[in-house]
Design goal:
single chain, 33% strand, 2 helices, 5-stranded mixed sheet, 14 strands, 255 residues, globular
Length: 255
């Protein structure tokens, strides 16, 4: 089957919502003494909103947070999975403070509205890939599934993100390759596989935002892929994160 998650599985246009940039305030890394001040105007320095790729937000590495993102998204059954929610009504599903996870949408652009608690960081994929033993039973070693995820993610040719229409720079620096990790698929899972626990390695481009203070924000993300390319694994050809390369817009209401 086609990958059904915002990844490279075999990975309405609505009226434009205008967000008043005067709502932009400040952000913090969870400490009152470590706050990045943001101008209340269109000249937003969004680089101050993003965790450095070499940092350890809440004492957890970037790579480990991305593993937690995969474990979260696979743990949610199809009918409530935020990846297949066009409005944002399942945005809070299985979320745990201090980091909430956000997802892309499959095969069409969406605008989602999401209420975010204060002091909550946000991790969203810009395009990502993973290979697991459950999905690729002919792959037998960590090295094989690691190479599989890397080759799929290599099909990504660009990633873009903006906050209140201010472009986030240097996103090419935020590609993360994980170690091997476990995830568990429930009944009615988005991979359409038997419920089980398996192991995977993931590769992806990410945006990790520090906690936003009270206000309304427009977060817009999109990744681009080389749709004319495929990879071959054990004689089977796959297209990388095809279907997830559409614009996803979040209207974030931090309260």
């Amino acid at each position: 089957m086609k990958k059904f998650l915002l990844t490279s599985f075999f990975t309405l246009i609505l009226p434009v919502l205008l967000v008043n940039s005067s709502h932009i305030m400040s952000i913090s890394e969870g400490s009152p003494n470590d706050t990045a001040i943001v101008d209340n105007n269109t000249n937003l320095d969004v680089s101050n909103l993003v965790y450095d790729v070499n940092s350890k937000p809440f004492n957890v590495s970037y790579a480990d947070w991305t593993e937690k993102w995969w474990q979260w998204t696979y743990s949610i059954p199809w009918d409530k999975n935020p990846s297949y929610d066009d409005t944002g009504k399942y945005c809070s599903e299985n979320q745990i403070h201090p980091v909430w996870f956000l997802t892309l949408a499959y095969e069409h652009p969406v605008i989602r509205s999401c209420d975010i608690p204060e002091n909550t960081a946000l991790l969203i994929t810009l395009l990502n890939s993973e290979c697991s033993y459950a999905e690729f039973p002919l792959l037998k070693t960590e090295e094989e599934i690691s190479e599989c995820s890397k080759r799929m993610q290599d099909l990504v040719v660009g990633v873009n993100a903006s906050i209140n229409k201010a472009h986030v720079p240097n996103l090419e620096n935020y590609r993360i390759h994980t170690d091997i990790f476990n995830f568990t698929l429930p009944e009615n899972n988005i991979l359409n596989l038997t419920s089980q626990t398996t192991q995977a390695v993931a590769d992806g481009n990410w945006l990790f935002l520090k906690p936003l203070q009270t206000g309304t924000y427009e977060l817009k993300v999109k990744g681009d892929i080389n749709a004319t390319s495929t990879i071959e694994i054990n004689g089977n050809q796959y297209n990388g994160p095809v279907g997830w390369n559409y614009t996803t817009t979040y209207i974030l209401n931090v309260k």
